[in-house]
Amino acid sequence: MERFTGRRLKDTLDWPLIICYLLLVFIGWVNIYASVQSAEPSSIFDFDTRSGKQFIWMITAFALAALILFVINARVYESLSVPIYIATLALLVAVIFLGVEVKGSRSWFEFGPVRFQPAEISKISTSIMLATMMSQYGYKIGNLRNFIVTAAVILIPMVIIVAQSETGSALVYTGFIFMLYREGLSGWLLFMAGVAIVLFILTLTVSPYASVLVLICIATLCNTLYSGKMRRWLTVVLPFVLVLAFLPWGLREIGGMTGAAEDSLLYRVRLEYVLAGLSLCSIPYFALRAYRERNTFKWVSIVSFIAGLVLVFSVDFIFHDVLQDHQRKRIEVLLGLKDDPTGVGYNVNQSMIAIGSGGFLGKGFLKGTQTTYGFVPEQSTDFIFCTIGEEWGFAGSASVILLYAFLILRVIQDAERSREAFTRIYGYCVACCIFMHLFINIGMTIGIMPVIGIPLPFVSYGGSSLWAFTVMLFIFIALVRYERRYFS
Amino acid sequence: MKLDKSNKLKLGLAVAVAVLLGRLFVIQIIDEKYKIDASNNSMVYAMVYPPRGIIDDRNGKILVGNKIAYDLLVTPKEVEEFDTLALSNALGVTEDFIKEKMEGYYRNRRRIGYQSVVMLKQMTPERYMKFAEISYKFPGFRGQARSIREYPYNAGGNLLGYVSEVDADFLERHEGYSAGDYAGKTGIEATCEEYLKGEKGYNIYLRNSHNKIEGRYRDGEMDKEAVPGKDITTTIDADLQHYGQMLMQNKVGSLVAIEPATGEILTLVSSPGIDVDMLADIGSHYNDILANPYKPMFNRAVQSAYPPGSVFKLVNALIGLQEGVITPDTEYPCSMGYHFGKNRLGCHDHRSPLDLEESIMMSCNAYYCYVLRNLLENDRYGSVAEAMDAWNRYVRSFGFGSRLGSDFPSELGGFIPDSKYYDKIYGKGRWKATNVISLSIGQGEIGCTPLHLANLCATVANRGYYFIPHLLKDSEEVTIDSKYKERHYTLVDTSYFPEVVEGMYRAVNSGYASGATATIAAVEGLDICGKTGTAQNPHGDDHSVFICFAPKDNPEIAVAAYVENGSFGARWAAPLASLLVEKYLRGEIGEGRKALEQRMLEGNLLDKVKTD
């Protein structure tokens, strides 16, 4: 039953969210001005410069926001979700053939001076689609059929975007896993995804042997925690694992003491295979126990363990044969496997110098030297955070991050408060997207993520991105407003 | 608060934000690395070039010092409209030069960016002052002081070598240099580069976003001071070197003097050489030097392999004594040469027969043909080939046939033949002593440098051993390799040397009509011992060779003179070497020999030298 509560605008709109949004957009605009500032100053409204153009994008974005808030009925999205989703998919495919090529990827449409990226819209349409689907009566994520359809809705645009060579944008979609978790996906899946990432990195940076050891450790620990036999694990498994951890070192020492030849068995033996083989041999025993105890958890952990082993031994393949050259280099640089300050590492190195040189309070507005001289590439788009870091210091950059944190938190809270599943799920989608962009983008500029070219929401230069995030956020604000207007 | 899924996600968000903030905190506040990194572009690193080490002679006179010169740097981005005429007047260049340069900078403006480039190099302080007075009119132009080489003595151009800006090739092969640095390229400057170069320093300045220098970074706390290069002391005697160069002017050849007791090189003249005036500014003279037909860059004293001529008889005499094929009393006849079959190796007119001492004194060719034949046809060895190799080993023990290991760069090893060599020419076993008979008198397939000859002279002076000739002395800051302090004995017993020395003494001091070859080198009271040589030269006049040492007991100097196309050893080489000895031991030339000195200084043999 809908009834008008008669609340006024000031009560129905989520003002903190809107103010937060406006602040970020303004910060972005000012820093775009600073980042394209050359030795000859120009006006922030100079339409030849990026700050001037961004001003136009801002005004039009505000107009879009107003349109969404006051003109379009917030109910329309739910009913139109399927056509919108399909239309976006069509655009995504079309852009591969009709789009212009920008930096090696075909993901942009160009209409005269205006360019836009369907991938930006697709985040919104996918969110709406997910929200519509998952808010249906009787939807349960635990239901395999439901789960597969949900996964497909997320994966289809992802795959097409990867085909456009925009892997970075595709990566954002993995953020939806947090929304799925909120909507009932088992936490263990999230946990396993985390373990997979750790194993991948460990295999590359330390050794496959260490990875296998950690995998054994985690698998046994999880089972112990589940059955509550912590003491036995601490007294039996942990010492055993610690001894094994020093095995490669010990073997080398023995080899050194006995003066074994370079190619002796001692050096050639691949410990990770031995360890993996031995642990696989013990699996029938655990399987028997799992069968006797009718213990599903044990079954799942056995399967996960085997999957983990497969992952560890395919890291080399994935890394060298699946990933593209530039992607591999970016990961190598990030993990410190290769030093490349002039090539792939250049951007990150320069960006970290820029941010690092900011200090606590920064060099001051327009006083940045790193960014002004164009040492940091892409400084008004993907690396805009460098300008913030350099000119406003830790105080400024931390404030920006906290502003984002507040924005995401506020969206989550609004989503939780909503009585409509659609609003809640859509809200989580918005939070996930913004979070992924935030973490990947800033993580990249401070060297904890590989270089992935995605913009910082609301702040980076670019109409397409600003519009998309504005629309995305304001649909949510409109949904919240709709609820506040019609429900008490 | 209940830990439901929503709260767990919020917790996750908090952790992620904490990770970002933590990392930011580290790179912005804790880690200094990103603030003082060399690639931090807000810092301007102004290089401070250290003065190069000073090169002294053995008596503490400065051979190579430093003086200040200025480079003119331009930062094209800062240059405003300026009066090109006024600038060109101040700098002493044409207006077109400046216009051309500025146009070049404009063409390369993207590459240059905010950097400074060098427009003019090595202005004199006087020239720079002219510019400095009006420099306020020319924003973007500034001078940078740099120390360049100065040579108070005109001594040892080739020896000292030159310093020049490093090129791309050099940078690739050497670490620790960057474009714009200078490095020693030849001579002592090159061999002692490690000591001389010092360490570059830098001052860090901060620049603001408009590329203006705002001041020192942390008041210079992080600056690095330049460490001046180490001074080195050479074994060269500046006065003697200069005198040697004067003597050798207008002649082609070398003059090398060694202190026998230490192996220290007192003088190393290669003529014609490079004037020290050219060294300081090698760049502008480089083409002239290359175009000179007498190749002044070529250091003949260590780089040219000549046949030694008759001075080599000393070596054969010593080997003969050691091998027992002759004794000091052995006499051989000479009838205008040595006859074998239908052939004859000629000799000059002297009385016959001669014993060993006399054969050295009169430089008899026939005598040494007998000696070499005795050596090669010695029954001790199974064949001529084996005897040949034994001879080769003896000769090599005098330092011939390989690099002596001096601290001078690009020393040549020379050549001493062995049986394999002749096997290759004549076929295995198809040659005999008479085929190689000219080795007896230092002709044929022998190549040695004047440094080798000087070393031979020092070996004889020491009665049987030598020190590797070297140019560096121990000093406060530099210690030389211990190999220069080891005695190198030859394979000939020291007891055989006095006999040879006696022959050399008589060659010089026997009086005019005695038949001795080197009486022109005699200086009353100096007891000079010497041996002449006349190296046959199929391309023109013979080369004039002379080695001598003095005094006879406790010798202080051993000299080798090699004058290309100087004909008999006594004509040019012997007077030159004896004058050098006299100058070193007496400090000046005696009245009686002034005329000879005059003749030597004025002598010009350049016309005789073939150039290609």
Task: Offer a concise description of the structure.
The complex is a heterodimer of chains A (488) and B (612). Chain A is mainly α.
Descriptive overview:
The complex is a heterodimer of chains A (488) and B (612). Chain A has 488 residues and is mostly helical. Chain A has 2 domains: 9-183 and 354-486, no CATH class; 189-322, no CATH class. Helices cover 71% and strands 3% of the residues of chain A. Chain A has 21 helices and 3 strands. Chain A has helices spanning 9-12, 15-35, 50-71, 76-98, 118-134, 144-163, 167-172, 176-182, 187-205, 208-227, 230-245, 247-258, 265-268, 271-281, 283-293, 296-322, 325-334, 344-356, 384-417, 421-445, 463-486, and strands at 100-102, 105-111, 114-116. Chain A has a 3-stranded antiparallel beta sheet. The model of chain A has no long low-confidence stretch (mean pLDDT 85). Chain B is of the alpha+beta class. Chain B folds into 3 domains: 37-61 and 153-234, Penicillin-binding protein 2a (Domain 2) (Alpha-Beta Complex), CATH 3.90.1310; 67-75 and 82-151, Penicillin-binding protein 2a (Domain 2) (Alpha-Beta Complex); 238-287 and 301-608, 3-Layer(aba) Sandwich (Beta-lactamase), CATH 3.40.710.10. In chain B, strands 2, 3, 4, 5, 10 and 16 form a 6-stranded mixed beta sheet that branches. In chain B, strand 11 and strand 12 form a beta hairpin. In chain B, helix 2 packs across helix 3 (95-107). The relative contact order of chain B is 0.11. The model of chain B has no long low-confidence stretch (mean pLDDT 87). The interface between A and B is large, with 46 and 36 residues.
